[in-house]
Structure formats: structure tokens, C-alpha cells
Amino acid sequence: MTALAETPACTDVDAVVAQLAPVLPVVGHDTPAPLVDGRRVPYANLDVAASAPALQAVADRVTRTLPLYASVHRGAGYLSQVSTSLYETARRTIGEFVGARDDDATLIVRNTTDALNLLAGCLPAADDGEPGRVLVLDVEHHANFLPWQRSARATVLTGRETAAATVAALRDELAAGAAVGHGYALLAVTGASNVTGEVLPVADLVEAAHAVGTRVLLDGAQLVPHRRFSLAETGVDYLAFSGHKTYAPFGAGVLVGRRDWLDAGTPYLAGGGAVRSVRVDGTEWHDGPARHEAGSPNVLGAVALAAACEALADVDADALRGHEDALRRRLVGGLEAIEGVEVVRLWPDAADAVGVVTFTVSGYEPGQVAAYLSAEHGIGVRDGRFCAHPLLSRLGYGAGAVRSSVGVGTAGEEVERLVAAVGALVADGPQARYDVVDGLWIVVDDPRPVPEGSGLEGLLATAGPGGDEAFGCLPEDA
Ligand SMILES: Cc1ncc(COP(=O)(O)O)c(C=O)c1O
Prior knowledge:
Elements: H1 12-18, E1 32-34, E2 40-42, E3 44-45, H2 56-65, H3 78-97, E4 104-109, H4 112-122, E5 133-137, H5 146-151, E6 153-157, H6 163-179, E7 186-190, E8 198-199, H7 202-210, E9 215-219, H8 231-234, E10 238-242, E11 253-258, H9 259-264, E12 275-279, E13 282-285, H10 299-314, H11 317-336, E14 341-343, E15 352-353, E16 356-361, H12 366-377, E17 379-380, E18 382-384, H13 389-394, E19 401-405, H14 412-428, E20 434-437, E21 440-443
Parallel strand pairs: 3-17, 5-6, 5-7, 7-9, 9-10
Antiparallel strand pairs: 1-2, 4-11, 8-15, 10-11, 12-13, 14-16, 16-19, 18-19, 20-21
This protein binds pyridoxal-5'-phosphate.
């Protein structure tokens, strides 16, 4: 590992940040990652915005719940009743964590994408009988873009140079629609950008939308795991987020919000559990969450997510934010101090930003930077266009960028390693040789073993001795 003194722009404050411990323990924090030089180092997971590792508390809860697991909602057996209770209690815990109002519905779905597709299917038609109108920004993740493009009359507003100007443009568009009788049913907006982490002022958005009778959907995928959020306090009408980004990777996601549209909408899935009665000539559907949760529910996913919500709620909100702010500042400051590194920004006046920092390195393709960070430093980041093609194109990053992201399980030392590794790339170049195979950057003659059955064996067809060794049998550090 590079010594602190060698990392770009390392000040006394940076040295303190480098010592920061994770706020909460996560599973796999010390998992060894093999390097091309034969060493192995603790894996630095700086890709938590894509999928976050499980909190230890979540893993423990799942382990404790497994012996209690049985069928839900239908079984008369003791464990069926216990499991039903666990599922419904988890629903309440999750709803409370995001400040659901008494009459809100909390639906357990698969992920944010699922939640947004579900809501799109419940969007009321406009007065002319055509699909309802929805206003979105071009900064959205595709999950908060494509459902509206497909199921609604979507208007895409180009984000402006500042957060204030973006909110003003949204306000103008909402008012203009209402003035000509084409009011928007919904403003669907991200809680935090999955590209820059930046946050728009939710209170202003809600005020502008509600002033003309438009509801607000917040895509909370990147916000909820990193900031306290309350539907009741903000007035946001609908919130979607994912368990796997909230340190509970057990297949559950959530849609919470106003019941009326959900109860009037076509059931998302047709099947058992969503119906009161079925006749050959017609069906009576439930209302409430059951209406959209046909099939056997994901009890363990819901329990896991509830455990994550409890663990996050137990952390002091300022401590949670302070930890991520410090890591983010060090990432931005350290990366920007390296010649040829550019940090992607949307809004210089953004009042807040979660721990997502996206950058480019002059002279290197994003895929090569990501491959280098993994192969030579054991650091996991994401490269590409982050399911935000319209935004990346508008900002001039059509070829993609590299995204690093942090969370409650991130240590300062991991951020320091990334800054040092990018600095070393710019100063000395990569030590291994890289090439593109089937559109993917790989190490030429990659000697690293890959986990058996990972599907990566084919990619590393040229791997040297040890290339097919099981991951658990790595030689000790040289
Ligand atoms: C802002 C945002 N919205 C939606 C999604 C989609 O989340 P999921 O893949 O869990 O459905 C993501 C995923 O990266 C995201 O970052």
C-alpha cells in the first residue's frame, strides 16, 4: 500500500480521514483480493452505489430467521404464523424508517426498478383518457426514465447548470402544463444522482409540484441508504428504493406512498394472494399491499431490509452523514489534485451530495482504469455510463467514466488507496498489460485465480499457472 505521505494532496485533515473506521461492520470487509503481482490485499469495495455489502446485523438477522422460515399468509402451522408476523412486522419497520404516513401503503417488491414499473402501471389516465403526464429530468437513472417513457406521456426536461436553475425550470414547466390544462400527474425525480451523488432540494420540488396539483415520486435508490428521509416530513408522495443498496442484498425493494393510485391501479402481478375471490367469470382483487404482491412473498428479503433499517436508524444521523461527507471530500480533493483527472459534477450549488464520486483519467479509457484498479490494487469501482446515458451524453462523457462510491462500511484507508492508485497510474502508468476482449478491458495473461464457477474462467483463458485455482486456496502474500 502507498504510504500516506505519498498520496496526492495529503494534508493533516486527509491523514485523519485515512484513519476513519467503518461506521457499521459489513460482511466481507476483509475479503482478500488477488493482484496480478501475486500478492493479495483486502478488497476495497468502492462500488457500494451499485450494490452494497450486507451489514453484519443483517446477516445475523437472516441467520436467526432461517429456522423460523415457513410459508407466509396461507399456513395454519405455527411457523407459518411466525413468518407471516415477521413479514408484516418488517413491512411496518421499513415504512417507519422512511416516515410513511398512516394511510400510506408500503409494498415489498424486488428493487427500485420494480417499484417504479409498478407505480407507472398505476398512474391514472389524464382527463382525455390518454396516459397521465409525467415530468422527469434527463439526469435520471434509466429505472426512473424508461417506465415513464413506456407507460406515460413523459416530458424530459434538461437539467440546468445549477441546482437552483434546475428547480426553477421544473417549477416553470409544472406551472406551464397546469396553465394550459395539461397538468402533470407526477414529477418523478431522483433523490441523489447515481452519477455525482448530488442532491436537489426536495422541499422546493415538493412545493413547486404540489402548488399545481402534481404528485412527487422520489427515486430513493441512492438517497435512502445514506441520509435520513421522511415521507411525512418532506411531503413526497411516493418513494422507491432497493434493499441491495441499503446493505440488505436479499432481493427485496420497496415502494411506499399514497394508497389511492395503488388501490385503483391494475394489480402488478396477477396471481394468488392478490385476490379476495376468483370465479370463472371474474375476480375480486384485494386493495392495499396484497393487491400488488401476488405470489409467495420474499420474507427473508423483507426481514433483511427491516434489519438494515433498524441498524441505520440506530446510528446518529450526523455521524452517518459526517462519515460519508469526509470520505467524499477526500475522494474529490484527492482525485482533483491529480493531473488529468476530472471529477464529474452536475450542480456546483448542490446543497448536499452522497458518497458517489465519478471521474475520468486523461489518456485512459474508463474500463482500463477500472481493470487496473482491480488488478493492481484490489479496488472495486464501476465504469461505464451507469444506466444514465442521456446525462452522460449531455455532459460530454459519452465514452463513460469511472465511479467510486462509499457507505457506512467504508474505511478511510480504502479511499486513500484509491487516490494513491489513481495517482500512481498517472505518474507511472500501469504495470500490467491490458487489452479489450469482447468490449471488456482485461489483463493480458492474467495470472489471478478466479472463483470456480464464477463464469470468469473463459475471460481468463490465457491465465498462467494458478489461473484455475479455487479462490479459497490462494497462496499467502509474498
Ligand atoms: C438512482 C437509481 N435509481 C434506480 C436504480 C435501479 O436500482 P435497482 O437496480 O436496484 O432496481 C439505481 C441503481 O443503480 C439507481 O442508482
